[in-house]
Amino acid sequence: MVSAGKTPTGSQTVARALAVLELLGREGELGVRELGRQLGVAPSIAQRLINTLSEAGFVEKSLGNSKWKIGYKAFQIGSAFLASTDLNAATAPELHLLAEQHQVNSFLGVLRGKDVVYLAAVQSGGPISITNAPGSRTYIHSTALGKALLLDSTDDDVQTLLGTGPLKQLTKKTKRSVSAVLKDLREGRRLGYVICDEENLDNVFAVGAPVRDASGGIIAALSGAVPRQRLSARAIEELCELVKASATRASRRLGSLK
């Protein structure tokens, strides 16, 4: 359940409206009753919130059902955040290079709380269809983006962030123990990238690498995903180097020397 009570600096209504947007950003689509349940309010209150947000363009009804999703205005504001940062200019050429020249679906993400938030996703001409819209959230432990974002974190910090486990299982190959994730991170620090071998989605192999700013700190991560089926060892090696090189070039544009 999302907390939507009164905040010290804002009204209860504003807090609830923001909670609605957060829920839809995470879940994709929800009905009014489910929104009310997760907010801890009556369906009538949830409906009033939806009506107000809909009139302003922040949410809209999905085609073919009675559920609601993020609207164009929320996407517009989120896109403005990315466009106003150097991160967009530094990473956009690399995302398109991976997708258009190498047929690799490419993603940019940042760490927000205990989730990875997608900032950008570029569809390649390959068979994997991207469903991760900018602003949507995903798991840290099961994604290449998530693990790449943790490469500078201490074991204690990772333990605090992920908890004691077992971690949520997304596929048969999801690593559910924190110790298994820590092992991946130790290998990732040595190589400069991490892999996700069908840990988040079946038949999807992904590689993630950190994007650093002028201070050398990790501010985002870049990943590339391809079908796992018939992926040779040589192709895996080439993909790892491609993603690592793209992340390194993006980091250089941001002034990183690491």
Kindly describe this structure.
- With 258 residues, the chain is an alpha+beta fold.
- The chain has 2 domains: 12-77, Orthogonal Bundle (Arc Repressor Mutant, subunit A), CATH 1.10.10.10; 85-254, 2-Layer Sandwich (Beta-Lactamase), CATH 3.30.450.
- It is built from 9 helices and 8 strands.
- It has a 6-stranded antiparallel sheet with strand order 5-4-3-8-7-6. A two-stranded antiparallel sheet has the order 1-2.
- The longest helix has 21 residues, at 233-253.
- GO terms for molecular function: DNA binding; DNA-binding transcription factor activity.
In short:
This protein has nine helices and eight strands.
Seen as an oligomer or otherwise, the chain set is single chain
User: Compute the gyration radius: what is it?
Assistant: 19 Å
Q: How many helical stretches?
A: 9
CATH-derived topology of the largest domain: Beta-Lactamase
Question: What order do the strands of the largest sheet run in, or round the barrel if closed?
Answer: 5-4-3-8-7-6
Which descriptor suits the 3D outline? globular
Q: What would CATH call the homologous superfamily of the largest domain?
A: GAF domain
The CATH class of the largest domain is Alpha Beta
Distance between the termini: 41 Å
Strand percentage: 15-25%
What's the story with the biggest beta sheet? 6 strands, antiparallel
Structural class: alpha+beta
Run of helices and strands:
HHHEEHHEEEHHHEEEH
Mean pLDDT: 88
| Total beta strand runs | 8
Number of domains: 2
> Roughly how much helix do the residues carry, as a percent range?
40-55%
